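User: Second chain of the day. Same drill as before.
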Amino acid sequence: MSLAVARKPLRADAARNVDKIITAARQCFREFGPEVPLQTIAATAGVGPATLFRNFADKEELVLAALNRQLRLTVDPVVDGALADIDGAAGLLRVLEALMDAASADANLLGAVAGRRELLTGITGSLMESISVLLVRGQGQGSLRADISMTDMFRLLAMLIGVVDTMEPGSDAWRRPLALVEDAIRTTRPTRPLPAHVPVPSTPGTSPHLG
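Assistant: Same format as last time:
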């Protein structure tokens, strides 16, 4: 489990500082990108660098704390609702939608830990357990393919998260790839058109992307 998750209870004033730092981190990463200096985050939070480093040893720990909070706030309630729903496939798709929406909103936070998959284990472990429950439920109901394993789901989820690197932060371009994944994992393809096609944005100084 990451240090960003396994925190001791804080005094009220310290907890307020942590909340201000995490809020400022999300704002600064959105405005300035993954390379934003910690000093900028501290200034935005209205705290000194010493206060920031007393709570977060480095940028990595701060990023994980910010990602963890957003998952708990935005994805966990959807997971709870999905687990309470009889329909396993519908619940699983709602969880994937919530996760992709959160990933898009905090694309620059994800970019700061790109390629460090092991760092995310501490904040996604319970999520994968819930996805496993929903997958087995949907397979038992005959709505999800019986030959899909959790290894398949882990890789599909990693592929979907990778879509964030090919779109503008905050975009909902992930909806089309997610619909394609839904088509692949359901036993019967949904009778609905794919979501709108969104071209891959061009990056200055590179060849135009296909789109």
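Residues 59-185 form a domain with the Tetracycline Repressor; domain 2 fold (CATH 1.10.357.10).

User: Great, on to the next one.
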